[in-house]
Amino acid sequence: AVDLACEQEMGIIGISNYYDFTVYGDFVTRAHNAGLFPLFGLEIICLIEDLVASGVKVNDPGNPGKFYICGKGISQFAEPNERASALMETIRRNDSERMAEMTRLLGAVLVERGVDLQLTADDVIAMIVARHGSPRETVYIQERHIAQAYQQALSKTVTTSERGEVVGKALGLTADDAPSDSVAIQNEIRSTLMKAGKPAFVTETFVSFDEAHELILALGGIPCYPTLADGAHPICGFEEPVEKLVAELQTRGLYAAEFIPLRNRPEMLKKYVMAMRAAGMIVTAGTEHNTLDLIPLEPFCLEGAAIDEETREIFWEGARVVAAHQHLGLHGHCGYVDADGELNPAWDDPEKRIADLAAYGGALIEKYARR
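Below the sequence we write its predicted structure tokens.
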């Protein structure tokens, strides 16, 4: 990732890992040696019960009340306090138990369909360790890893001529309709067998929004809302119209948002970004990079469309504010938000707060690159 960032002339690269932070040490060393400013983050899935009851979809188009929240610029992950450690352990345990059960169920479904493959969570972890050389104790598998492990096992156990028929049988498709590309097979395994209502789905056990928000602040981060906008069809009820979304986020103590623009049309992306920025929020963007598709690190819109310059400048501004927040937090100072999640009270003017922190972050990034 660092080599690609250098080749593509990036100035900042951010990382978010489920749910272990020890890899961040190696990452920061490599980024430092390359002159890339490293940003640290995390993502948490929580549940808001009243939105579940009312059927409101937030930023997961398939599950009412399911709420993704990210932490940007975390700085206290090396030695988290007792409360943060307890919350992280709860999340890790709940997620690991669910992934193990989904791995087992997926194997049982395939056996029922005449495909004799039954992997365990340990098998999936072993695949990751073999591929990346990761220390085993740092690996927390996700749905994509399970799908990848089963796809690879399928490919190893059948000949090329048989693959279409076997993949089709596994997915409930005809041989002619079965995908042949490895990443496409993995995505199809997830969508047809592992999502809500599908035979290998296991109901998630979530922390609450308040607990997720508390954990991000305990780790020194900025609570940040990952926005789908027209990445969902139709747009999730929580996110429309954008003015209602902004008011809802700020009520919940969220003063930052992010996008994965490759999901969005340029005009819709700009509409949401401009409304959020006009309300005094910072906005960032990324590419996700959680499959084996080797897309560019620089964000782009749906079908390869370019992000317009005004929107790009807002994303760059947001990234610089996160850099400033992370650096200040690492040295015991208040950044964009304080330990209670309130905007830094050293500034009365929200525009000056953002401008000053962006300037500070920009100077840090420039200095890092020169070193």
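The chain has 13 helices and seven strands.
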